[in-house]
Design a protein that fits this description.
7-stranded mixed beta sheet; 24% strand; 41% helix; 17 strands; alpha+beta; 322 residues
Length: 322
């Protein structure tokens, strides 16, 4: 009997260790947190840069049609970007408008030659230099040091949602959006991966367009983390293994990121959704700033933004703005 119990314990330990190494091997690491002259010093707490890209990698032509993503497979842009601050004064998820008009630092071009620094929409940093240039751009414009990085494309996003059987959401009003393919009725419902992708991408139903879309993204990501991190999903092998395979297999993270860091990320997102944290947006000074070329861009409120960034850096209470 003792040997039977001992054998079961050994089997459980071997399974747990094997699962850990299997899950850890799924992570895709990239050197996006490279040092550079003038990089901000580390602050208190931990800052994650979370990027949702419009990468179609792994999607067939039929799937791209079904998901209304288009067929641009040659380039990659950021569809959303957020900083999650994990600290002693609560966890805060801060959205950064992708049309933010900010200085983009000098960086290597596709031919290896340096591209001069300029002022442009922050989304262009990701499109022109990937995660590394986006991290540097965010750091230099916020004064915050990014400790960890996570990026996921369209296919991985859909896979995560479907692996846990969809995400339960409350939809405030009927939504029908031709561009994203979204067609939802108001009320409580479970969104499939396809519906969830359309929900976080659609903006034409919102009076404030991208700013409204960011609120939806924050709301959904919190609900997703809450459901994915539930014991019912983590302890059920029929959901746990597909979740890990779909999520970690398509996730791009920094070189120092491990499974414990991913776990901390999910728990912090769960706290934000549960009400013990906050969701904010970089304070906006002008949501329709007209550039010299006639583009519409977003200008941050310099004073309020600095107060918010300083709160992140010093891990103090996030200020309330009217």
């Amino acid at each position: 009997m003792k040997w039977s119990v001992f054998g079961v314990l050994i089997a459980v330990m071997v399974t747990a260790v094997s699962t850990w190494f299997w899950a850890d091997s799924k992570l895709n690491h990239e050197n996006v947190l490279a040092d550079y002259p003038g990089r901000p010093a580390a602050g208190k707490g931990t800052n994650w840069l979370i990027v949702g890209s419009d990468s179609r990698q792994g999607l067939t032509d039929a799937e791209q049609d079904d998901l209304h993503t288009g067929h641009d497979t040659d380039s990659k842009r950021s569809d959303s970007m957020m900083i999650l601050h994990i600290g002693d004064n609560g966890n805060t998820l801060m959205s950064i408008p992708r049309d933010s008009w900010v200085p983009i630092p000098e960086h290597p071009g596709a031919n290896g030659k340096p591209v001069k620094g300029t002022t442009a929409k922050i989304n262009s940093a990701f499109g022109n230099g990937g995660g590394r240039l986006l991290v540097q751009t965010v750091e230099q414009n916020t004064g915050l040091r990014i400790d960890h990085y996570a990026e996921i494309g369209f296919g991985g996003f859909v896979g995560i949602v479907d692996s846990i059987g969809g995400v339960e959401m409350h939809i405030d009003q009927d939504v029908k959006d031709k561009d994203s393919g979204l067609d939802l009725k108001a009320g409580d419902q479970t969104l499939s991966g396809k519906q969830a992708l359309a929900f976080v991408r659609q903006r034409h139903q919102m009076a404030d367009q991208d700013l409204g879309r960011m609120r939806n993204q924050q709301k959904f990501l919190g609900a997703l983390a809450h459901q994915a991190a539930s014991p019912g999903n983590l302890l059920n092998p029929f959901t746990f293994y597909p979740l890990v395979d779909a999520g970690l297999g398509t996730l791009i993270v920094d070189e120092d990121c491990g499974l414990t860091d991913i776990g901390s990320l999910f728990l912090a997102m769960k706290d934000v959704n549960g009400g013990s944290g906050k969701s904010v947006t970089v304070p906006i000074g002008n949501p329709d700033y007209r550039t010299k070329t006639g583009e519409s861009a977003v200008l941050w409120d310099a004073n309020k933004s600095k107060q918010l960034f300083d709160a992140f850096k010093n891990d103090t209470a996030v200020p309330e703005f009217k």
